[in-house]
Amino acid sequence: MTTALVASRIGLTGGIGSGKSTVAQMLAECGAVIVDADAISRQLTAAGGAAIAAIGQIFGAAFITPAGALDRDAMRQQVFSDPSAKLRLEAIIHPLVAAQTAQQASAAESQGARCIVFDVPLLVESGRWRAQLHQVLVIDCTEERQISRVMARNGWTREAVQKVIAAQASRAQRLAAADMCIYNETQSLAELAALARAAAKRFGL
Description:
Layout: E1 8-14, H1 20-29, E2 33-36, H2 37-44, H3 52-59, H4 72-81, H5 83-110, E3 115-119, H6 123-126, E4 135-140, H7 143-154, H8 158-167, H9 171-177, E5 180-183, H10 189-202
Helix pairs in contact: 2-5, 3-5, 4-5, 7-8
């Protein structure tokens, strides 16, 4: 009787502007199946998403757009001004994200995936992820690099980016949780791709 191969389960994380999503795409090109927790969260809070009814009930109609989606700007301001709002929002969204990620991972394994990469921005903060993973890959850069990238990409002010960084795990906390790290400070896309390919080989791809 043959034994089914167990897929490598890799947690991928990094602060805002670190290049985590770019590395996820590069790992996908190497054959990894990406389970994107952020994308799942966005689907849940889009118009008609599974989290919308509960958000409207707990936070009120002011946090739902006319199209029926989460008003992200309004919620971002609320979370920054009221720490308890973040906990209430997470209590709605996190169980739904967990169920969806488990479902996607199970489907990937049933289709013979060799490596499943869980792209989780708040992997270190959540505390529940580490036990589900074989390794954690952290994409790292300096805080100043994070700020400059997000200001250029999103058009945010420095202060807005700093607030997001302050709400995330610190750079030291992420590095302490890492089994492997890709430093993405001044690398070109070609150099970053080479680092991603080297990581993919270590993950069995």
